[in-house]
Structures are given as C-alpha cells and as structure tokens.
Amino acid sequence: MASLLEKVGTLISANLHALVDSALRANSVAVMDEYIRQAENNLEALEDAAATVGGEVKTLKRKYDEYTAQAAKLDSDIDTLLTQKRDDLATAAQAKLNTTQRLADQYKQQYERQQSEYQNLMDAKLKLEAKLTTIKQEREELLALLELAKSKELTVRTIKSLDDIVGIGDADIARIGESIRARLDKAQAKSEMMASRLDEQMDDVLEKSALDNQLAERKKRLGLS
User: Fold this and answer.
1) Residues 159, 107: one domain?
2) Which residues form the domain of 223?
3) CA 93/CA 84 separation, integer angstroms
4) Nearest residue to 116 (alpha-carbon basis) of 5, 38, 40
5) Based on the domain organization, do 146 and 122 belong to the same domain?
6) Taking the model in full, what pTM does it have?
7) Which of 26, 84, 128, 195 is surrounded by the most beta carbons within 10 Å?
C-alpha cells in the first residue's frame, strides 16, 4: 500500500509547468499522455485498494462494536453475580470480560489504523483526480496551441517560398514580351504596306477609267465611235 501511495504522491507532485515545457519543446503532447496513462492506472488501483480497506474498516468496526457490547453485558452480569454472592461465576465472568475487553481494544486499534489508511487513500484519490482533470484540460489547450503554431509555421514557409520565387524569370518574361511586341509591330507594318498598295491600285484603276471616259467623249464628238 505504501508503494502505491508513493507512486500516487509522485504523480500528484509532478510539476505541471515542467510537463507543459517538455511538450512544447518536443512539439508533442506525448509526455502529457504518458502522465495521464500512469495517473489513470494508479487511480484505478487506488479505487480498488480504497474499496478493500473500506471493507476491512467496516468489518473491524462491527467486530469492535460486538465485543464492546459483550463487555458491557459481562460487566453488568458480574455485578449481578456478586450481588447474588455467586463469586465463582463472577470470577469466571470477570476472566471472560478481561479477554473480551482485550479483543475489543485490539479491534479498536486495528479499526482506527485502517480507518486512517482508508482516509489517506481517499485523500490521495481526490487529489489525483483533481490533478488528472487539470492535466487533461491543459493537454487540450496545449494541443490547440501546438496546432496553431504548426499552422503559422506553414504560413511562414509558404510566404517565404513565394518571396523566393519573386523575380525569378522576370528577364526571360521581358524578352518574350519584347519579342511579341516586335512581331506585332512587324505585322502592323506589313498590314499598312498592303493597305497602301491597295489604295494605289484603286487610284490607278479610277484614273484609267476617267481617261477612258474622256477619250470616249472625244471620239463621239469627232464621229469616230
């Protein structure tokens, strides 16, 4: 029992800040999970031990009460026997009373000792339950904190990666743009040249038509048509 209470005492006295610091350094709540596992196992053992000792306390208390009642009755019987001048029976009753009182005292001592042990177990159980609840709550908060930290670290890495690629290929892109613009300029020049030639051809056609008309009028006037 002492060994169990020592283990529980060690768990109860475990420094919460030390557990949290270890978890933060490792970016993991594994150290707290191990504490919780040990605490739950020892809590189960405590409950079993407390039930056992509690049962013994009840048994010892009942025995003590029984022998105390027997002693009280024997004490009264002795007075009655002495009053009746039955000294022989009174002597036997006194011997029995002495034995009964001795047993009652022994059961009382055992009862009080086990009662104290039971109380120690129950106190340790309550303290361990309280510590376990605190650790579990702290674990959930720490887990959320670690997840947030991981998310922020991912964001930082992503931004850094974007910063690293900014400017990469700008010169190539600029050359490609200049090349495309040069092609557009050349195509525009060709289009303008073709349009100019078309205008010239149209002018030539229109001018020849006008000359033909003039000559036709002249032939008509001369009666040559």
Assistant:
1) yes
2) 174-225
3) 14
4) 5
5) yes
6) 0.60
7) 128
